[in-house]
Design a protein that fits this description.
Chain A is an alpha/beta fold and 107 residues long. Chain A is 14% helix and 25% strand. Chain A has a 3-stranded mixed beta sheet with strand order 3-4-7, with no helix packed on it. A two-stranded parallel ribbon of chain A has the order 1-2. In chain A, strands 5-6 form a two-stranded antiparallel sheet. The chains are: A alpha/beta (107), B alpha/beta (249). At the A-B interface, loops of A face strand 3 and strand 4 of B.
């Protein structure tokens, strides 16, 4: 397991390797799976860091945890956490918050 | 025209936008729900705002969502049966952009089972003339309550509301602006207990209009709701407190 991060959290087990974000592009050559933590606005940054060409997708099955406010906690369909996907608008609170990265649309 | 009486089981309601489009099986308050108010419904589909967000601040939270909804036709297809089965009276919150839209939307709802009241939301920056035209067009067979954002409750055009066709005024969430990280200014609805003193003041200013007033926004404590009811509010509407599990202490 490799964590790409600018800051290594305390208490990680020895089995977790920590690498800087600018090495993420290389992960495409050896990783079986990618899990990312991102806001709706920085999908483009993630694509750039992953070294993707304009129409190239992430690894099949790659997933992203969307960091977004969820003020109504799914009670009101308030729309604050709405996520734009290739299948239309989804709510992070009720449909996510984890989405397939290849289904997310750039904002 | 004779003013239609509001249908309320108790004086405790949710505010539009706080519980979705269909009545919940249960809600967070111990009091019985007096009526269920739907999320705002537009004539046609609205997508979420590009810069949608929720920004907390010491007095509460600013919500900028674009009021997404599938439009009246889709809402009726999806929720009308649940409104018909609702044990609480259903109030449909409409946000038409023109008088013609208001007439058409209300015409569709007048024959919809379970719908007991129309709550009219006004476009945020509409003029007094536009507001009065929308209210005039919205008058029909169903009781009509006009949502007036807290910061507009002192405007003179409220004196011209046709008392015969408006059943009540609802004090609704005010709009405000905050700066998000990155420096961008975001405007939206304000929710939070910090609004309560302003709501009480607005209620007192509205009572001379001799229209029932539903005091919404800023109601987070049972004691505050009781103060508003004692001060003359016909009912109170709660919003964010429903997302926090019930009355604040």
């Amino acid at each position: 397991v490799t964590l790409f991060s600018a800051d290594a959290p305390d208490g990680l087990p020895d089995e977790v390797e920590v690498l800087p974000m600018d090495l993420l592009a290389e992960a495409g050559t050896w990783a079986d799976y990618l899990a990312a933590c991102l806001t709706r606005g920085n999908l483009a940054d993630l694509r750039r860091l992953a070294g993707l060409r304009p129409h190239q997708g992430f690894l099949p099955g790659a997933e992203g945890l969307i960091l977004t406010p969820m003020p109504c906690a799914g009670m009101a369909e308030c729309g604050a956490c709405a996520v734009r996907t290739t299948h239309g608008w989804k709510q992070a609170c009720s449909d996510g918050p984890v989405f397939e990265l290849n289904l997310l649309e750039l904002e | 025209m004779i003013r239609q009486e509001l249908v309320l089981d108790t004086p405790y309601l949710n505010a539009a936008g706080s519980l979705g489009f269909a009545p919940p099986a249960a809600w967070a308050l111990p009091e019985r729900m007096g009526a269920f108010v739907t999320n705002p419904v537009s004539a046609t589909r609205r997508t979420p705002a590009a810069e949608r967000t929720a920004l907390p601040y010491p007095g509460g939270v600013l919500l900028h969502t674009g009021l997404p909804n599938p439009g009246l036709n889709a809402v009726l297809r999806q929720y009308a049966q649940r409104w018909a089965r609702s044990t609480a009276p259903v109030w449909v919150h409409l946000m038409p952009q023109t008088p013609a839209q208001a007439r058409e939307m209300i015409g569709r709802l007048e024959g919809t089972e379970g719908v007991m009241t129309i709550e009219l939301g006004l476009p945020p920056e509409c003029s007094a003339e536009e507001a009065l035209a929308l209210v005039g067009a919205a008058a029909g067979e169903l009781p009509l309550t006009v949502c007036v954002p807290l910061q507009r409750c002192g405007e003179n055009w409220l004196n011209e509301l046709p008392a015969g066709s408006v059943s009540a005024i609802t004090i609704s969430a005010p709009r405000g602006s905050l700066v998000r990280s990155g420096g961008q200014v975001v405007s939206g609805r304000l929710l939070g207990p910090g609004l309560f003193p302003l709501v009480l003041s607005a209620l007192r200013n509205l009572l001379p209009l001799r229209l029932p007033v539903i005091a919404g926004s800023g109601v987070y404590r049972k004691a505050d709701a009781e103060v508003l009811l004692s001060a003359g509010a016909t009912a109170v509407q709660v919003d964010g407190v429903l997302w926090k599990g019930g009355w604040a202490q």
